[in-house]
Amino acid sequence: MNLIIFGPPGSGKGTYSQRIAPKLGIVKISTGDIYREIVKNDKTSFGKMIADILSRGELVPDDITNKILEERISQPDAKKGFILDGYPRTLNQAKFLEGTTKIDAIINIIAPEEILIEKISARRVCSNPKCDGNYNIADINRTIDGVEYLLPPLLPKKDMICDKCGSKLYQRNDDTPEVIKERLKIYEKQTSPVIEYYKKTNIPFVNVHMNRPPNEIVEKILEELKKLNLIKHAS
Ligand code: ADP
Ligand code: ZN
Questions:
Q1: Which domains are delineated in the chain?
Q2: Given CB 3.0 to 4.6 Å as the disulfide criterion, which of 30, 106, 131, 175 pairs with 126?
Q3: Residues annotated as catalytic (active site), given as ranges
Q4: pTM given for the model
């Protein structure tokens, strides 16, 4: 089964796809992860060029991204299927993908801006570079446009101290409402034409509100894929 996941920054799409992939026996493919690996390991002029693009927050040119994606999905581990996270980002990429492989469904995570801003502003991450501890102090329980948002906090046991390693927690300096609004605007601008493109195809959409903790969102997505007869049973 081949899937694409769309969702604004802070919607948790990376987490959901990471958890869904093993349940479906498919691989998660994130072009952002691939590029970060290249920046870390490739010391050639190509790696340097990618590093420059990423540090400016720009998109890598389509011909490069398409080639990288094509190579990745032809690897043996992707034969049973994949879930694409962060690709396609442009119409050119969407068209390239259409000519390369069949997509069975599109998962589209929906979240109102105010929820995303509140959740992202409430992130607290561990200051120890060797630790991946991350927490969230927002406690959301309200209804917006008829959708009930019940998103409990993920608090450390001790205030502003990492449970895993005891280091201090801090707030990333790009997790502020201003920066988040800017990131959401860029996402909107980049992704809406791609989503509009897919709406005109007959690929089914699975629209899911980000209104519950990740476990429940993952279950909802699997339920919807079952309804589409894409999976017989979810484990
Ligand atoms: P973000 O931090 O914007 O959510 P990702 O983690 O998905 O981004 O990707 C990090 C960076 O990798 C992007 O800013 C962009 O430079 C590059 N990148 C990732 N996916 C693509 C893509 N599909 N097309 C072009 N560039 C991409
Ligand atoms: Zn820690």
A1: 2-227 (3.40.50.300)
A2: 131
A3: 13, 89, 123, 172, 183
A4: 0.92
